Amino acid sequence: MKLKRFLGLIIAKILLKFLVILKRGTGATSLPGKFLTFFDKNFLKDIALKFKVIVVTGSNGKTTTTRMIGQILKENGITFVTNYAGANLLSGIATALLQGVDVFGCPLVPVLLLEIDEATLKKVSTEISPEVLVVTNFFRDQLDRYGEVYQTLNYVKDGVANFKNTKLVLNADDSLVASLAKVKPFEVFYFGLDSEGFQDSQQNTDARYCLFCKTKYSYEKHYYGHLGHFKCPACGYRRPEPNLSCLKIVEMGEEHSRYLLGIKGEDFPTYHEVNLSLPGIYNIYNSLAALTCSQALGLNLKKSIEALSTFSGAFGRTENLFLAGKKLKIILVKNPAGFNQALNLLTQEKSKVGLAFLINDLPADGEDVSWLWDVNFEILNLITDKIKFILAGGRRAEDLALRLKYEGLAKEKIKIMEGYREVINFGLKEIDPQDVFYIFPTYTALIGFRKTLNEKFKLKEFWK
User: Which residues are annotated as catalytic?
Assistant: First the structure.
């Protein structure tokens, strides 16, 4: 077995190097791991035991939160390997692990930081038991693959049941996530919002009823989707008190956000102010998850806060690019809750904007695109004077264009574009240097669009 693993590691590392040289970005993040797990069935189970493992899962915010935790680890002088490119299925996890060992299977770094898809978590839970599991939120996501949100919860619940001695970092404002604390008597660290402002009136469609007695929740505060200070008036299940919380949102702009951080059991010191170069309440949640993970790991909180002040957006997650003298902002969308939060950013934009929605229906996106009818495109009517054009692209461009027209948006502003290069050329031509070109792609559209950008402008590959 040792010889077989040695040969497998050599071949997989050569394959990885070869794919990187050929600039096969998505292949480089998954194919070596796919080969290795086929060649060596016990690779994950045996090798993961040699690392301190941190896992991040959830519907929205996995990649950004993982990168934030990585920034915190760097600030605290901890070396690690990770699947930063968002390759969060089994093959991507194995590829990350491959990069953390030598050809003899010995660790090159002490920590393995993994973003793991919710359904995959159950599959790997018998092979990998993390020291810390971070769960961001649960929303309806890829109905054809996950089913309703309770199925997603069950995937993660089954994974947690298989873990041993894992610390849980849970979103206190998500009734589904918070329920994971009841699976096993693990140590739990919660994060959440206690801010009075920036509440969202959008209807809770994902988790209206108590998991334990089916009574409708009441909310003292409501932020977005089903996130907020929930309480079941019948059985008493309610939002737990967070270890770390956002006490007050000081400032929220189109490029940044600033808030005051509260710590459970501690008076509020003046230096606990968190500055993010990312906008949106969902990124405040992501940062709280990362900071609470650092608390679970016993890291220096002040250093962790400083680390986030230098953090920039992950690939395709509120990613800012300046090309040909024009500003582009790319925001991945994949479900109604995340899409609505992304659209809310447009209401804070002071400049004129051009919009492109790139919707694909491949397996990685979710083949059922009916979720588009749950997206609050109506909000675009509030900023119609700012919108210069709306481009519909991707495999389901016509479906998206129809959806937009049903909201009463100006038909003359909506244009269907066949290819990503056409979208890029039109957008950069039509916006002025002081404007912003927003691109909202689903996952495979993001990969294709970014690849076209890379080729046109000689950009660095996202996975490097």
Answer: 368
